[in-house]
Amino acid sequence: MSAGLLRRVGLPLAVFAAGVVVWEAAVALLGIQQIVLPRPSGVAVTFVQTAGPIAHHARYTLMTTLIGFGVAVGLGLLLGFAIGAFSVCHDALYPLLVGFNSIPKAAVVPLLVMWFGIGTVPAVLTAFLLAFFPVAVNVALGLATMEAELRDVLRALGASRWQIFRKVGVPRTMPLFFASLKVAVSSAFVGSVISETVASNAGIGYLMAVAASDFNTRLAFCGLLVLAVMGVALYGLFAAIERRLTGWAYAESP
Amino acid sequence: MRTRGTPGVPPGGLHDPAVIELDGVGFEYASGGRRTVAVDGISLRVARGGSVAFVGASGCGKSTLLKLIAGLVPATRGTVRVDGRAVTAPLKNAGMAFQNPVLLPWRSVRDNLFLPLEVLRENGDPRAGDRRRWEQRAADLLRTVGLTGVEDRQPRELSGGMRQRVSLCRALIHEPELLLLDEPFAALDAFTREEMWELHQALRGRREFTTVLVTHDLREALVLADTIHVMASGPGRIAHVHPVPMPAPRTLADAYGAEATELIRAMRAEIRPVGAGS
Predict the structure, then answer these.
(1) What's the predicted TM-score (pTM) here?
(2) A14 at interface of B, judged by CB pairs closer than 8 A
(3) Contacts with B122 (C-beta within 8 Å, 6 or more apart), sequence order
């Protein structure tokens, strides 16, 4: 393990571990009730005991998140390219997109439940609704910021709009696209958990809601931990993909 | 679009060596409900293999004129002809270079140079030539500009001057008839800029192309161009024409000689008359 990796991974883990130790000591020393704030060791015990159900719900949340995210990436790419490439699309759709994005998505969940019932569909749709915007906006931005000189160089060669789009537009948009994936996957995750909390029979959000209604604080903390780990893992995965595929946009000059 | 004409006879006829012909060319555009005339009444001819420069204060329409010649904007008055053909759409194989080298950062130097050839080949232009020859062309050009062996480097690994050289090579790799330069060396330091002047002279000696240069730098115009058009603004028009007295290829000694200094003094007075203030 290199010194850089040790610092980037080891240091936050060390701080986390220190926090857990302080937490454990504080709960014991201050005599805090377990129902208010459980000890980390107690949370760990509950985690091991309920590992099976937790894994089941985690898989479910991961599935709804990834389906919603996948749809958001596909449609976000299409809409972003349309907005970035055609000024008519930009003028017609961009204000609507901004207006739509300003609606708190949690407010849409009851509607989705009315239409689709409790379960997977509202969770997937909420994930999609949250993840869609960053992808579309970043892709549109990547196309819209193409240097006018570069466009002129290509047009003077007889290049068509389609050729300019393919040879320059798409590649130069990729760093922004991959950067948006990190944000979008986190948003999708938030979306599916919100929906599961309100209207679902499965998923970590549902697990948290059930734990809360049972005053099972330990289980609620288990849920939080799973959410944190999954969120970091998804973000890390897409950050790694981004650096691998579009390193040219970040590499420093010697 | 192919030209009609007798086989073997260049478009425009054997007796007219002009590759660029402008007749009463003007460009007018609407902005904020008002019509603005950017350039007007431009008539000139540039001989095949010649080199012409447009100089003038900012806003005199010299960049617009370059775009008119390239067909990137359509003339609203008069006609632009390149190679005897009226220009109504962007040209098919002009080479362009700007102050900003605009290389593609995700491509190696080699693949940046191949970009024009890829476009031409996709469009079925025979000038793209055989893919096996591309490598040779790239190597030849890079050698001429003193960048032998950088094909596999990434643009970010190059200095500003090196990038500008690559940009110039990209503008020439498809052996275009026209090389259109808009302030190509303005962002470079003085020494690199002078090297680029000499480079252009060397390239002119090796290849057949016609140069159109837009610049603020009067000395640059004098080294690169055989004829200098001094433009005036409101609307942009050609106010004075100066043939450059020294024959090409011109050297730095020419650029800093007494004749050059005298011509620069004259042009400067035309662009900003003494006592006119600024």
Answers:
(1) 0.81
(2) no
(3) A163
DSSP string, B19-85: EEEEEEEEEEEEETTEEEEEEEEEEEEEETT-EEEEE-STTSSHHHHHHHHHTSS--SEEEEEETTE
Choose the closest CB to B102 out of A149, A158, A251.
Answer: A149
CA A70 to mean position of chain CA atoms: 11
In this structure, the strands spanning B77-82 and B178-182 are unpaired
Interval A119-140 mean pLDDT: 93
User: How far B229 CA lies from chain A's nearest CA (Å)?
Assistant: 23
**A101 in contact with chain B, both atoms CB, cutoff 8 A:** no
Contact B72, A152 (CB under 8 A): yes
Q: CB of A146 within 8 Å of any CB in chain B?
A: no
Residues in B touching A168 (Cβ below 8 Å) = 104
Select from A59, A81, A63 the least CA-distant residue to A188: A63
The CATH class, in words, for B18-271 is: alpha beta
Residues B40-80: tens digit of each pLDDT: 999 999 999 999 999 998 888 899 999 999 999 999 999 99
Cα A36 vs. chain centroid, distance in angstroms?
29
Nearest to A57 by CA among A103, A123, A113, A137: A123
Residue A57, both tokens: 């719900």
What is the spatial distance between Cα B138 and Cα B117, in angstroms, rounded to a whole number?
A: 11
